[in-house]
Each structure stands twice: as C-alpha cells, then as structure tokens.
Amino acid sequence: MKEIVLIIHEDVTLSTITGAMDMLIHTNNLFTQNKKPLPFKISLTGEISDRNVLPLSSPFVQYHVIGDIKKADLIIVPAFYGDRDVTLKKHQNIINWITQMHGNGSEVASMCSGCYFLAEAGLLNGHSCTAHWNDMDDILRRYPEVNFLSDMVITDQDGIYTSGGAFSSLNLILYLIDKFCGKEVGIGASKMFSLDMDRVKQSHFAVFKGQRQHRDDEIQKAQTFIEQNHHLQINIDEIAGNSNMSKRNFIRRFKKATHNTPFEYLQRVKIESAKKALEQGAQNINALMYDAGYNDIKTFREVFKKITGLTPQDYRRKYNRVISIPD
C-alpha cells in the first residue's frame, strides 16, 4: 500500500485536489470491489487538521497535520491561487517539511503551480520540471537552475514528478496510478475519467508572449524588429546588424535574455502569427504559410507541429473561433 499525502491549505486550487482525490478514491474502490488489498492510503495534510477547506466523508481519506506524518511514499503538492511571494512565505513551514520528508526518502509530485513549493524546497535544482506554460518566465527568473520544459504535461526524474497547467495536471495522477498499480488499472482509470494516457505535451495551449521579462534594451529592440518583420525573409545576420552587434555576441545576449536563440524566437513569432490566423478561420494553408514568412509548405508544417504539437489543420479544427450559424 502506497501512503499518499496531499498537501492542503487555504490557498490551494481545490479543483486540483478534488480531481486527484476522485481518481485515487475510485482506484481504491475498484480494488475493494475485486476483494484485493487497497493500493493507496490517502491523507489530506496541512499545518492544521482542518476539514473546513475540503470536507470529505470517505473511508479512504484521513486528515493530519504535517507534524504527525513521519513517513510517506508520495507527497502531492496541488496548485495554488494568489501572489507567489505572499503564498510561499505564508506556507514556509510546509515547504521546510517537504524538504525534510524528501530527505527521508519520500517521493514528491507537484500539480501545476505546486512546483513553486518544490523549487523553494530546493528539490528542482538541476532537475527538469513543468507547470502551467504561463509560469515559465517567472520560474526561470526565480529558479535559474531549473530546467523548465514548458511543452511537457508530465516530468518524472529521480522520484520527483511535476505536471502541466490546470486540468492537464490530472494526467500526472493517471500516470502515477498506471505506474503504481499497473497498466490494466491505468487503462481503466483513463476510460473512467476520459483522460488520454498518451498525452505528453501541452505546447498547443501555450501563448507566445514575447519573453520580455528582462532588462537588455538592445535585445528588446531586436525582439520588436523580429515581431514587426517576421513575414519578411530576414536572417540572423540582418537582425544582429540592425542591433549593431556581431552575430556571435548578439546570439549570446539574445539567448541569455529570452532563453531562446534568435532563430528559435523568429520561428516562434512566425508560428504564433499562423496560430492567430487559424483561430480566426483562415482556410488556405499556402496563403497562411506565405503570410507567416515561409516559402516551403513541408518546412512550415514541420515547424508548426514541432512548436504546437499539432498540424496546422488539426490546430484549426481545435481552435477555430468562427462559429457557423445555420440559416
């Protein structure tokens, strides 16, 4: 039996906890119905033993305070609302406890913004992690030793698990059920909760925001130049020359400031332009390709899929905002 501890406090995003609880309780129910030993012992644990945050009446769930828990196989940290600095400072005791428990052998998982707790606990230094794609710039600024993978739904490294944004974090719970209980149980949970077991990327949800949270004015100007001229056949030599820098120095400064090479940034700007056109109902892929600054349809499709995880046609089908009204 795996001892699972879910962290709870007044700032948690309750949907991440209730979703995880539903899946874990369902799995326990399944084992009970088949007269098999329970796979999970589940505890809702915080700084106070308070049922008011999330009252449950399940025989599979217990409430504890962090001081009561001396041993756990897995600690799950849910997403949270509110100002990052305020919330992390408020719950420093929980963060310290997570550090201690991990040092004693507990595995640790985070759902969406819960990865801030893991990063504050020092557990993500030198590790890969993911969270909501919108948190990437802030996480990289706060925790430069973290390898943030914004397009991934799940990471699993050395007993530390992280998951992507919002409801995609439930894919992590499905992954853990599959890992701890076996493929057959995982498939059953996938069907019960209509979750795709093979979903590994969240890149098609990402909004390319320009990565401007830095203070290098010359690179800011270069970003503006790229964004205004992405539809033209510009190259890195031209962009560097426009910034009055050598190509080598320009590439170094650009990557330091934006965490992308200039070429990667140019590609992302082009694809963001194409995404917006598809969302508005663009039908002609060739015209769309030229407007985004590409001349070769094969290259355009390959880059689009690499960045978004979808083909242009699939992206249009998913996110086309034009609604047909019957006559």
If you had to describe this structure to a student in words, what would you say it looks like?
This protein has two domains: 2-205, Rossmann fold; 217-319, Orthogonal Bundle (Arc Repressor Mutant, subunit A), CATH 1.10.10.60. The strands form two sheets. A seven-stranded mixed β-sheet has the order 3-2-1-4-5-9-8, sandwiched between helices. It is globular, with a radius of gyration of 23 Å. α1 packs parallel to α6, α6 (170-181) runs antiparallel to α7 (183-192) and α11 packs across α14. It is of the alpha/beta class and 327 residues long. Mean pLDDT is 89; it is low at 323-327. The chain has helices at 14-33, 84-90, 92-103, 115-120, 136-142, 170-181, 183-192, 217-229, 236-242, 247-258, 262-279, 285-291, 297-308, 312-319; strands at 2-7, 40-46, 61-65, 74-77, 107-110, 128-129, 147-148, 154-157, 160-163. β1 (2-7), α1 (14-33) and β2 form a beta-alpha-beta unit. The longest helix has 20 residues, at 14-33. The protein contains 14 helices and nine strands.
The CATH homologous superfamily of the largest domain:
Class I glutamine amidotransferase (GATase) domain
Number of strands: 9
String of helices and strands: EHEEEHHEHEHEEEHHHHHHHHH
CATH architecture of the largest domain: 3-Layer(aba) Sandwich
Sum this structure up briefly.
By secondary structure, this protein is an alpha/beta fold. The chain has helices at 14-33, 84-90, 92-103, 115-120, 136-142, 170-181, 183-192, 217-229, 236-242, 247-258, 262-279, 285-291, 297-308, 312-319, and strands at 2-7, 40-46, 61-65, 74-77, 107-110, 128-129, 147-148, 154-157, 160-163. The protein folds into 2 domains: 2-205, Class I glutamine amidotransferase (GATase) domain (Rossmann fold), CATH 3.40.50.880; 217-319, Arc Repressor Mutant, subunit A, CATH 1.10.10.60.
